[in-house]
Amino acid sequence: MVDWQVRGVRGATTVGENTAIAISDAVHELIAEIEAHNLFQPEDIVCVFFTATTDLDAIFPAAAARKRPGWDHVPLIDLQQMNVQGSLDRCIRILIQVNTSVAQSAIVHRYLRQAQVLRPDLDVQMS
Predict the structure, then answer these.
(1) pTM across the whole model
(2) 123 CB neighbour count, 10 Å cutoff
(3) In order of start, what are the domains of the chain with their CATH numbers?
(4) How far, CA to CA in Å, does 127 sit from each of 42, 65, 73, 79?
(5) Rounded to 5 degrees, what are φ and ψ at 16?
(6) What mean pLDDT, rounded, does the chain reach?
(7) CB within 8 A of 4, min separation 6: which ones?
(8) Span 36-64, pLDDT tens digits
């Protein structure tokens, strides 16, 4: 019997400019990285939370994610990231809750672009 659990997968990225194209590209890149390292399918996803800094308002990150194959029925929500003085600009963060038999310690979190500074302890070198 497989022991399924809900696990959290985290990640973040930054966007070069506040445009719908730049935000969409960053969201797709981040999700693709997370999926490639964790090997889950959209039907395994419980829900996805996005946060964006106040300087990103050209498009909802969830609207970009919704266009991914199989993501049309995934529950998605956008939230505004707290505006902490000195924090990373133009940053999108993600929390994916996924059903999996993988241990939480085996989950691969992805921090891309300038967001790598948020969790350098979780950095995965690309092969």
Answers:
(1) 0.92
(2) 12
(3) 5-122 (3.30.1330.40)
(4) 24, 25, 32, 33
(5) -70, -30
(6) 93
(7) 99, 100, 101
(8) 999 899 999 999 999 999 999 999 999 99
